[in-house]
Design a protein that fits this description.
Length: about 240
C-alpha cells in the first residue's frame, strides 16, 4: 500500500463515535477515530515497508501514528528515531502505548527509559516510566538491572503523590509491573504499593480508573503468575 491508500483505508474505518471518545481522552485533530482492532487489519500491509511506517507516524494523525507503532519492527528503530517519535507524541495514548511499546522492544530500551523518565516534560516522563515497565514485562529477570529498578521503586515511593498528573499514573503502573513481572522484586514492589495506596489522577471526562497497585499485585500473586513474561508489549 502507498501512504495515500493507507490513509484512505483509515478514513473508511473511522467512526464519529470513536473519534469523540479519543478526543475526550486527549487526542487532537487530525484523526479519523479508528478502533485498534480495526486498525490491526492494516498491519500486514504496512509492516513490510519501514519507510511507510515512518511516514505514517510523521503525518501527525493519531490513527496513522498508532498504526505505525503496531507495524514497525522495533529492532530497526534507532535511538534518534525513537527520541523523535517521543517528541512528536502529543498525548498519553501515543507516549504511554505507541512509543513506549516500540522503545521497550528496541535495542535502546533501558537507555531511553532512564533518559525519559527524569524529563521535566510530563509526556516524555510518562513515556519513560511506561517504556521501563514494558521492558521489565518482556525481559528475563537475570537480564534486568535489579538494583536500578529497586531505586526507581524508592523514587516512586517518595515522590509519586507530588508528581505531575499522568506521571502519577505511569509510576503506579510501574509498581504494578515490577510486582507482576519481576519475581526477585515482588516483596519490594508490594511494600511500595501498600505504602503509596490510592493514587489520584485526573482522567478528565472519561470513565477510566487508576488501579490500586496492592490489589493488582495480590491478584497476580494469587494466580501464581508472578514473573511470567509477555512475548510482546506492542498492542
Amino acid at each position: 500500500m502507498t501512504f495515500e491508500e493507507v490513509m484512505n483505508n483509515l478514513e473508511e474505518l473511522g467512526s464519529e463515535q470513536t473519534k469523540k471518545t479519543l478526543l475526550r481522552h486527549g487526542a487532537q485533530e487530525p484523526l479519523f477515530g479508528v478502533k485498534v482492532g480495526d486498525m490491526k487489519k492494516l498491519v500486514k500491509f504496512v509492516k513490510k515497508d519501514r519507510e511507510l511506517t515512518l511516514a505514517l507516524y510523521d503525518s501527525g494523525n493519531t490513527d496513522a501514528m498508532y498504526l505505525a507503532g503496531l507495524s514497525v519492527n522495533p529492532k530497526t528503530m534507532t535511538k534518534q528515531e525513537l527520541q523523535n517519535w517521543a517528541k512528536q507524541a502529543y498525548w498519553y495514548m501515543l507516549t504511554e502505548y505507541t512509543v513506549a511499546g516500540v522503545a521497550a522492544e528496541s535495542s535502546s530500551a533501558p537507555q531511553l527509559a532512564r533518559e525519559w523518565l527524569q524529563s521535566p516534560d510530563e509526556l516524555i516522563a510518562t513515556c519513560g516510566w511506561s517504556t521501563y515497565a514494558n521492558y521489565i514485562s518482556i525481559t528475563p529477570d537475570e537480564k534486568l538491572d535489579l538494583h536500578e529498578i529497586a531505586q526507581l521503586l524508592e523514587q516512586v515511593r517518595t515522590t509519586i503523590h507530588a508528581e505531575r498528573n499522568r506521571v502519577r499514573y505511569t509510576m503506579n503502573t510501574f509498581v504494578i509491573t515490577v510486582g507482576a513481572y519481576c519475581f526477585p522484586l515482588l516483596e519490594a514492589a508490594t511494600e511500595v504499593a501498600n505504602e503509596i495506596g490510592k493514587v489520584h489522577v485526573d482522567v478528565g471526562q472519561t470513565a477510566c480508573k487508576v488501579p490500586l497497585a496492592s490489589e493488582y499485585i495480590h491478584k497476580v500473586e494469587s494466580m501464581g503468575r508472578v514473573g511470567t513474561k509477555k512475548k510482546t508489549c506492542i498492542c
